[in-house]
Design goal:
- The structure holds two protein chains of two kinds.
- Chain A is an alpha/beta fold.
- Chain A is built from five helices and five strands; from the N terminus they run H-E-H-E-E-H-E-H-E-H.
- The radius of gyration of chain A is 15 Å and the shape is globular.
- Chain B is mainly beta.
- Chain B is globular and about 45 Å long.
- In chain B, 30% of the residues are buried.
- Classes of the chains: A alpha/beta, B mainly beta.
- The complex binds FE2/S2 (inorganic) cluster.
Chain lengths: 151, 169
């Protein structure tokens, strides 16, 4: 499911089957390392997009949780905890945060859901074949993690 | 394949894939035989909407997954949508191409995806099951069989068109 009117319609009818929320955590900046930070976000979005395609019927892919890199970890955790409690209060049982931003590792212990960290792989100069293979590999690892949490 | 052409060298590529998420990897399984329909570069047959997906000689009696892309036009922009098909030859030697989209709520099904149910398609989301020919197994969430792609073979290449529903089983 994605955050679109069409998917939400299905969600409203089939709520009991859609118990997993995936939130991409996407950093922003216009100061340092702008390009690599943008490419991190791009990569994560591609992977969660593919994950959603594979698990459409059970996973709700939320719009990204975005933050400027200058925001304190404390502040971010507060906000993400708020997102999470909104979701769990409405029946979501599994909450996953997907990011390439290493900063989150420091805050992992205080997160109410599961952090899935991906290495950021710059896809832009890669040929199509490698690209597909990498996206597929990374996605299938995430899929296995979700499956193991489900069972 | 010359390494210095790509900014990501073979070594980096290996590092990326071998380290990375590996840290929290659960047992590797799933997606058993993923094949990419890359080489017959997704050529569209002129005038039709069929896409080259596989070489007939690669198709066996065991379902294999082939990935491909189709162009979709959405009111104001055009994009490429990734698709997959489970393709095999049935007892009569005829090619069958099933859509992997679960008829329950749309997750992607896998051939032999569940150890307890060999020779069936399995949906990991709510444990839907289908027989090899796509027929849904009663008592699991899906109530329709998997869609079948329209297909044609030309010069040893398999082309797929639209996935069509087969109706209630
Ligand atoms: S989406 Fe396949 S069983 Fe529910």
């Amino acid at each position: 499911m994605k955050w679109t009117a069409k998917d939400v319609e299905v969600y409203l009818q089939e709520k009991e089957y859609i118990d997993t929320a995936v939130i991409p955590l996407i950093p922003l900046t216009l100061e340092k390392n702008v390009k690599s930070i943008a490419s991190m976000g791009e990569f994560v979005q591609i992977i969660v997009g593919e994950l959603e395609r594979q698990f459409k019927g059970r996973v709700f892919l939320l719009p990204p949780f975005t933050y400027f890199t200058s925001e304190s970890m404390e502040e971010k955790i507060k906000r993400i905890a708020d997102w999470t409690s909104q979701l769990t209060a409405n029946g979501m049982k599994h909450i996953f945060y997907v990011t390439s931003d290493t900063e989150w590792k420091a805050g992992e212990a205080s997160l109410p859901g599961t952090l899935l960290w991906l290495p950021s792989i710059p896809l832009e100069h890669m040929d199509e074949k490698y690209k597909q293979q990498i996206v597929m590999d990374q996605t299938s690892q995430l899929m296995n993690l979700l499956i193991s949490k489900w069972s | 394949m010359s390494e210095n052409k790509h900014r990501v060298s073979r070594r980096q590529f290996l590092n990326y894939t071998l380290t990375g998420v590996g840290g929290f990897m659960a047992a590797g399984m799933l997606m058993p035989m993923v094949r990419f329909a890359l080489d017959p570069i997704l050529k569209e047959e002129a005038g039709t909407e069929m896409v080259a997906v596989a070489q007939v000689k690669d198709i066996t009696t065991e379902p294999q997954r082939f990935d491909f892309k189709v162009k979709v036009k959405d009111a104001w922009y055009e994009s490429e949508e990734p698709k997959s098909a489970w393709v095999y030859k049935d007892d009569k030697g005829e090619i069958v191409a099933l859509s992997p989209v679960c008829k329950h709520l749309g997750c992607t099904v896998n051939w032999n995806g569940d150890k307890g149910n060999p020779n069936r398609f399995f949906c990991p989301c709510h444990y839907g099951l289908y027989e090899k020919d796509g027929t849904n197994v009663p008592g699991t969430p899906p109530i329709y069989p998997l869609d079948r792609y329209e297909l044609k073979v030309k010069d040893g290449t398999l082309y797929l068109g639209k996935a069509k529903p087969r109706g209630e089983a």
